[in-house]
Amino acid sequence: MEFLTGIYLSYSFITFYLLFLLILIYIQNRRHLYEVPEIEKEFSLSIVVPCFNEEETIEDTIKTILESDYNGLKKVVVVDDCSTDNSYEVIKKCAGKYHNVLAVQTPKNTGNAAGAKNYGAKFVDTELIGFSDADSSPKENAISNMIGFFNDENVAAVTSKVLVKRREKLIEKLQSIEYKIIAFTRKLLNFVDGIYVTNGPLSIYRKNMFDKIHGFDVKNLTEDIEITWHFVAEGYKVCMGLSSEVYTIVPDNLKTWFRQRVRWNVGGVQTIMKYKTTFLRKGMLGKFILPFFIFGWLLGVLGLIVLSYRLITRFIYQYFSTTYSVQAQVAIISFRDISLTPNILVFFGIFTLFLSLFFTSIALIHLREKDFKRESLFILFSYMFFYLLVYPIILITSFCKYLRGYNKW
Predict the structure, then answer these.
(1) Long-range pairs of 351-360 with CB within 8 A, sequence gap ≥ 24
(2) Average model confidence (pLDDT) for the chain?
(3) What CATH superfamily classification does 40-256 receive?
């Protein structure tokens, strides 16, 4: 067997396996996607909001958190990480207006969200501690729909469904699809205890367990991924509420988007390296989450390599073949060169595309929103055939930056 063909078949097998796994999980649990556990105990809760140069959004974030219908919300701690704009003034204004809002400022800029989050956690003494980004807006029932998961004493964290707030530009519309796919996939992984990240826009943790693992890792660029893996490594459970909606602002230009995705993936590599010794060991982290994460990376990189190789070799073959034909004054193409025999590799490629479209369609159907129009076919195909093709480049860029010691927020 040709070496490249072996790689291609391996790539197809892994892709089929992961897609079939998710589809089978969906078929088995499709009636339970939006289930909300009944709250058996009203846990006391504080929400920490890290803020850096968010004067335009921070007040709205504070208001939406305070509008929560959960009666156990005791305090909102807003941490200004030494902003260079008027964020801290806005925060202090809100603290003066609302009795349960506490405005604090870090002694010096921490340089990342983890540092500001850990600083804010020092002012929390409730049973649960939640975190929300300064540009995010939880729905009124988002928090209350998450609390019931803590009925299980082994649950350390619960995360939410993140959706895109602004969808004016093409890149924002493409990300709105991506965020829905992420949320839908994360919920499916919930059914097999395979959640690998508790997002920044809205996640809640059991405070004593949060303190036990010493909070967020300030050296990791994706502290939300690292803390999730840390909880799972300790034997705790992590859940996700698909009924808990929070809207966030996403990058509205390619440069910012690319930089954000590189940071996410460099942080992912950092987390993989930190927990690499658990591979195929130590419960769900080593036997499922870590392999799932690694195979996802390999699929992206291998896909780019295979596609690039075939395009380049095809171009070179056509170039020399055409050049020879012109010089020899023979036909450039004849009927003998046209093969109508089905190619197994082409079949695998088409089948993979079909499965991907099927899974994407299921996700978009289940995460349909009342306040937004359904995604057009143009946006959907742009996402499938252009947006996703950039990801392998991001993965390779991220890995190279990791090797060079990149650690910039």
Answers:
(1) 351/16, 352/12, 352/15, 352/16, 352/19, 353/384, 355/15, 355/16, 355/19, 355/20, 355/23, 356/19, 356/384, 357/384, 358/23, 359/19, 359/22, 359/23, 360/177, 360/181, 360/384
(2) 89
(3) Spore Coat Polysaccharide Biosynthesis Protein SpsA; Chain A (3.90.550.10)
